[in-house]
Amino acid sequence: MLPALCLLAWPVAAQQAAAMPASLQGDWYQNDRHGQQQCGRYRADPGNGLAIVGQLRIRERDFDTFSEYGEGNHSQVTAVQQQAADQWRVSELTFIEGDVGHGKPGESVFRLRDGVLHLSARYTLWRDGVPTQQTSERTYFRCK
Questions:
Q1: What is the pLDDT of residue 95?
Q2: pTM of whole model > 0.85?
Q3: Is the dihedral of CA 40, 139, 100, 98 positive or negative?
């Protein structure tokens, strides 16, 4: 009977959580002068659509990056794997604004060190039918 119980429990133990850690959730801006200015605008008027440009908004099950007023990428979190005390590998489906229903799989690594969020994203870029792996790296601070 014991081996059967182990087999029943195995799929549950092998699954990864699909929730972002609470320590990552919130509104983040790029760790530069422009990001500081945008954060100040956002704190002064959270309803100002221009103030979200450049923002990384992380919630429990998804995150958004705003490149323009209300536009950008929306990523639905499919798995979160903690790699270290301050580092998580996140699998996601990313939807480019206006392309809902055609999410592209991707993977990101979130590292939180000394209050600074380091985000590495990996994605595939297609040129002339040939896929190439691309990586982007950015640092963010939490806008409080």
A1: 86
A2: no
A3: positive
Q: Which of the two residues, 16 and 116, has the higher pLDDT score?
A: 116
CA 106-108-30 angle, to 5 degrees, is 120
Q: Is the pLDDT of residue 98 over 80?
A: no
What whole-number distance in Å separates Cα of residue 30 and Cα of residue 86? 19
Structure tokens at 71: 């536009």
Please write down the long-range contacts of 111-115, taking CB distance under 8 Å and 24 or more positions apart. 111/86, 111/87, 112/23, 112/24, 112/86, 112/87, 113/86, 115/141, 115/142
Distance CA 115, CA 133 (A): 29
| Element holding 22 (H helix, E strand) | none
The string of pLDDT tens digits covering residues 39-53 is: 999 999 999 889 999
Give the pair of three-digit tokens for residue 26: 């919130």
| Secondary structure string (H, E, C) spanning 39-74 | HHHHHHCCCCHHHHCCEEEECCCEEEEEEECCEEEE
Helix (H, G, I), strand (E, B) or coil at 95: strand
Specify the pLDDT at position 94.
Answer: 87
